[in-house]
């Protein structure tokens, strides 16, 4: 999906605009600055076009940090969005922070929509017109809270959104898109440098690809791969506060562009909550997943302590990563280059399975056998029945079951497990949805 990012100072109404675009009533508008929101990416739809909406404003700093925080938002938006919505509080007018962001946005050459918010009625429109002098073109007067002007804004926005299907078509047979993710210092940039190394292909007009300066095309295992958002790996956010937020913002935005994620972990350190959170972002995005356990050179001697660590690592993986036991694991050393060649087959497996389709006849035969062997437990004397199932889509494989009642979560997990046992689904999440006919 094309990505639209919303950028702006604290309190200009970014969250209100997000809610308005998503068409939700229950507002997540916060008047208190400094609130952290976990979700940053939303699926939006307007006039039958779908796009991802990235709210860059989830972390709002105190007054001293505003410039850096808004600049960090702009950086993510510029690198990873197709179109930027830059929101200004028209009743306040452009501040020096706004002007700073305008400079960044103009230099980037990305399409930008200047949103003049808080224009609650027509009499206030001159305030919006005053924003012409920011040099970002026509200000779009809106009231995010009341909805005024938002439809016009979205109509205009859709005209500049890249045509997804055209992009998708151009990329068939083109390089697969890989995001390298992981918390700081696990070895992402070492891996990138080793992988890109001398083999880096400098491309400007590789046939059938859209060029994006934050991506790198590398040749691995005889194939070309597009590593997305390598700028986010090379450049680091140096911020006292909010760095975590901007890192996960970047992760979410990079996932939007990727087909498969390599999550890098450091075997010399305990698996942390942050590692698990990054993996969960991948699951939420529905992308294929490969786990790269890095820095094996540190554990590979006969040192007793290392033997302990190796044993402990297995336990940690069982405990903390049980929910992604289906993800291919590669043990590598970005430093020595050891086993880096194992990464490519793992990526290929993950992507292939992410694309896999089970024919409807086969899937229903599978369901019939499974139910015969293991009927759903009785609930209040009744038993929900599965009438029919089909795989609605791939990327990731998504199944729909038509049932006569809700299936227990445990039973759905059982179906997932059996699917994985019988078919090749290593490296991909599986989604099972239900349509209940009462
Ligand atoms: P990033 O923040 O994830 O990009 O991590 P870096 O690639 O900058 O690596 C962080 C530190 O770990 C650096 O000092 C690297 O030299 C070191 N490092 C990275 N990969 C390995 C590895 O495979 N083995 C060892 N021993 N050190 C590594």
TrEMBL record:
The protein, known as: GTPase Der
Residues annotated for GTP 2 binding in this entry: 182-189, 229-233, 294-297
Function, in words: GTPase that plays an essential role in the late steps of ribosome biogenesis.
Species whose genome carries this gene: Microbacterium hydrocarbonoxydans
Lineage: superkingdom: Bacteria
Gene that this sequence comes from: der
Gene Ontology MF terms: GTP binding; ribosome binding
Alphabetical list of Pfam families matching this protein: KH_dom-like (PF14714), MMR_HSR1 (PF01926)
Keywords annotated in UniProt: GTP-binding, Nucleotide-binding, Repeat, Ribosome biogenesis
